[in-house]
Amino acid sequence: MDKENKKGYYKIYKDVVERVSNFVLEINQSYEYPHMLISTVIEGAHQQRYFSIHLPSLTDDQKGSNNIERFYTDVVFKTITN
């Protein structure tokens, strides 16, 4: 992974995390962990999609719903607002 990172393979992903982290800081300048929050949300959302297909007892997603998006939106805003 380190070699691939040095070659720039993760640049787009890192740019997305940086950009969204900046939005977090616009809402709450004193929030200490914007990069960890956003990278966790992105990775967690991917896992929840996988779980909804292969391990449905690990998620609350339902076909035709937007529960994953709603969940992470709720988590983010409750985390960064007072």
Describe this structure in words.
The protein is an all-alpha fold and 82 residues long. The protein has one domain. The chain contains four helices and no strands. The chain has helices at 2-6, 11-27, 34-54, 67-80. Helix 2 crosses helix 3 (34-54) and helix 3 runs antiparallel to helix 4. The protein is flat. The N and C termini lie far apart (37 Å).
Span of the ends, CA to CA: 37 Å
Number of helices: 4
Structural class from helices and strands? mainly alpha
Name the poorly predicted regions: none
Coarse morphology: flat
The largest β sheet comes out as: none
Q: How many strand units?
A: 0
**What's the order of the H and E elements?**
HHHH
Domain count: 1
Rg of Cα set = 15 Å
> Roughly what is the average pLDDT, rounded to an integer?
94
Fraction in beta strands: under 5%
Q: Name the helicity range.
A: 55-70%
